[in-house]
Amino acid sequence: MSNVIRIDGRAYDELRPVNFQLDYQSHPLASLLVSCGNTREIVAMSVEDKVPQWMKNQKVPGGWITSEYGMLPSATGERV
Hints:
The structure is a single chain. By secondary structure, the chain is mainly β. It has one helix at about 55; strands at about 20, 30-35, 40-45. It has a three-stranded antiparallel β-sheet with strand order 1-2-3, with no helix packed on it. The two termini are about 30 Å apart.
């Protein structure tokens, strides 16, 4: 099966080209546009000098990392 080619010309074990564009947005502390085939993802970073209240209450050491995800309404042919 290693000699079988996909419609777009890639072999079945070949990834789509991946591209990273730094500083894609001007307002976040840092941002990145990641492209892989027809998929685009914007990553934006901000820093706050605080942790959730439950960490303070329980005296949990360390920091806190969180993320959010959102997909545009027309990003796919069918909403799931």
